[in-house]
Every structure is written in structure tokens, then in C-alpha cells.
Design a protein that fits this description.
mainly alpha, globular, single chain, 154 residues, 88% helix, membrane
């Protein structure tokens, strides 16, 4: 339940933050990396019900954030969620690999759609968003790999 609440709350909070202070787009871009990890944890825990979590976050975003930001967010999340779902459904690799593969495929698409729809073309913002998202999932991948190696030697 914690992953679910954190995911929905983070989507809502970041959409509200972009609406309230769009000039801080670099800050919000760094924060966005967390959402991808939370999304994957929700997908691992709840499977296809992760789409219901995304829908809930979307509806709340439309109620509380700027509708233009919410539209860009839901478009980007919907496409990246479908990529993520495809990787988790088709790929039979270990969880840590599926997390990284899905991020490597969905993060660039999400970033391009979201910032493109908002008309944000600053390379620093795009780079910060991509780097934070991929760094976060890479850290999780390394932790999971180290844990797996420890369990294998025990």
C-alpha cells in the first residue's frame, strides 16, 4: 500500500508543482526520476492494476493541477506505462533487469512527450530529467543485483 500511495501522491505532487512554479522545471525534472521507480514497484506489487493507480493519479491531477500540465503528464505516462507494461509482460528476465530495460525504453519517450507538449526545450532540463530517472533505476538495479549475489553465496 505504501508504494501505491507514494506513486499516486508523487504524480499528483509533481503535476501540481509544475503548474504552480513552472520556472523551477529543472528541480521538478530531477524529482520525476522517483516516479518511475515507484511506478515499477506498483507494477511489481499490483500487476495490471497499476493502470488503475495511473488513472487515479491522472484524475486527481486534472482536479488539482493545471489541465495543460495534467494532459502532458497523462499522455507521457500513458505511453511510457504501455512500454513498461510490454517489457514486464513479454520479458522473462529477472525483475532487476526488467526494471532497467523498461526505464531505458520508456524514460526517453516520457521525457520527450512531456516536455515537448509543454514547450520546454531547455537541454539542461531534458538532461536532468533523463539523468535523474536513469540514475534512480540504475541504483535500484545495482542494489537488487548485490542482494541477489549475496543470497546466491549464502
Amino acid at each position: 500500500m505504501l508504494w501505491l500511495a507514494a506513486y499516486i501522491g508523487s504524480v499528483l505532487a509533481i503535476n501540481y508543482a509544475f503548474s504552480l512554479a513552472p520556472h523551477l522545471d529543472l528541480v521538478w525534472s530531477c524529482w520525476a526520476g522517483l516516479i518511475f521507480i515507484l511506478r515499477d514497484m506498483v507494477q511489481v506489487r499490483y500487476g495490471h492494476w497499476s493502470l488503475a493507480a495511473m488513472l487515479t493519479a491522472t484524475l486527481l491531477s486534472f482536479l488539482l493541477a493545471d489541465p495543460f500540465v495534467a494532459t502532458a503528464s497523462v499522455t507521457a505516462f500513458a505511453v511510457s506505462e504501455l512500454i513498461d507494461w510490454g517489457v514486464f509482460t513479454v520479458t522473462r528476465r529477472p525483475l532487476r533487469d526488467r526494471l532497467w530495460i523498461s526505464a531505458a525504453l520508456s524514460v526517453p519517450v516520457d521525457t520527450a512527450l512531456f516536455f515537448g507538449m509543454l514547450g520546454i526545450w531547455d537541454p539542461a532540463v531534458w538532461a536532468a530529467s533523463l539523468a535523474s530517472k536513469l540514475a534512480g533505476v540504475s541504483a535500484v538495479w545495482m542494489l537488487m543485483r548485490a542482494r541477489s549475489a549475496r543470497l546466491a553465496t549464502a
